[in-house]
Automatic annotation (TrEMBL):
It holds the Pfam family HAD. This is Morphological differentiation-associated protein. Keywords: Hydrolase, Magnesium, Membrane, Metal-binding, Transmembrane, Transmembrane helix. The keyword Cell cycle does not apply. The lineage of its organism: Bacteria, Bacillati, Actinomycetota, Actinomycetes, Kitasatosporales. Belongs to the HAD-like hydrolase superfamily. SerB family. It comes from Streptomyces ruber.
Length: 274
């Protein structure tokens, strides 16, 4: 499907995957909201808001303005969260929550890219405490994700050190290409959102996956392939994805980022319709 194995005498190549609605069927961070509630990180009202935000996200996603507002709001929600506790919650519930919502088509693509000699890199706006374990589960080689500042007490300060969104995703990919020797003209990228057009433009083989309406229009105008993934399946029900021991955090992450933003987005939507 993807051609012959790369000639190792040529520059290295990679496949860059957005995560939510591209590799998995839901928002990665919102999926953990009930677990965060049970761990005492968020209250019952926030759980209800994240459930609504998940619905909104699946129905149409968030545009650029809403995503920028998410970044401004997340500091109030995640300030004081203990990072180790977040990691433990994710580790305890990862297989139960994420394994069933991985797209079979995406898992197959990841396998094919590895067989073709390409690295697989997950590039997500969600936080690393969420993205890194999911990347390991999928067999990814590296992750790029949002990074929150952690204080001396091991808790999030509420400040955002790096926001993996829009143009910053493209910048991270170019930096990885320089450090790892990737030939971007021969690399692949996959995303569902028009906000990831900068990322898709960075590579020679961009693909729109389950695209929102704006990205579908863009893909049709540019002649980019459009893929429809609709078969979530547990990894244990298919050929296993070989774990990649070299998994690295290209940008370490704070799990609070996407949760905070989309909780805020849900609240805004409720207020605007009240």
């Amino acid at each position: 499907m993807l051609g012959l194995v790369d000639n190792h005498s040529l520059p290295r190549t990679a496949a860059f995957f957005d995560l939510d609605k591209t590799v998995i069927a839901k928002s990665s961070t919102l999926t953990f909201s009930k677990s965060f509630y049970q761990g005492g990180l968020i209250n019952r009202r926030a759980v209800l808001h994240t459930a609504y935000a998940q619905f909104v996200f699946l129905a149409g996603g968030a545009d650029h303005v809403q995503m920028e507002r998410m970044r401004a709001y997340l500091s109030a929600l995640c300030r004081g969260w203990n990072v180790q506790q977040v990691k433990e919650i994710v580790a305890e519930t990862l297989h139960d929550l994420i394994d069933p919502i991985i797209y079979d088509e995406a898992a197959s693509l990841i396998e094919e890219h590895h067989l073709a000699g390409r690295d697989v890199v997950i590039v997500s706006t969600s936080g690393a405490e969420v993205v890194e374990p999911i990347g390991e589960l999928l067999g990814a080689d590296r992750v790029v994700a949002t990074r929150m500042v952690v204080g001396d007490d091991g808790c999030f300060t509420g400040e955002v050190e790096y926001y993996a969104y829009g143009p910053t995703k493209a910048e991270a990919i170019r930096e990885l290409a320089e450090s790892e020797g990737y030939d971007l003209a021969r690399c692949y990228a996959y995303s569902d959102s028009v906000t990831d057009v900068p990322m898709l433009e960075t590579v020679g083989h961009p693909h729109a996956v389950n695209p929102d309406r704006a990205l579908r229009r863009e893909a049709l105008a540019r002649g980019w392939p459009i893929l429809d993934f609709n078969r979530p399946v547990r990894l244990k029900q298919r050929l296993s994805v070989t774990p990649r021991p070299a998994l690295m955090a290209a940008a370490a992450v704070g799990a609070a980022a996407a949760t905070a933003g989309l909780v805020w987005y849900a609240s805004r939507r409720r207020m605007s319709t009240a």
